[in-house]
Amino acid sequence: MNTINYGGIKQELPENMTRILIEDDNGILGFAFFKDGMFECEGEKSYLKPEQVRKWIQIGELKLKLGII
Q: The sheet that has 18-24: what strands, in order across it?
């Protein structure tokens, strides 16, 4: 899996076509799909490069951490 270094923090890029919860550079949370190396923001026709996203977590991983699954 590919990784990116953002602000000294190394993160693994999600799998292609995965639904993600993201935090952008402005601290705003939103949902997106990761596809073709970019985050496609839900409800918008915009794409963000991984360098433009501060943090992300795959929805399945978030459910596990919250004990929902």
A: 47-48, 38-41, 29-35, 18-24, 53-58
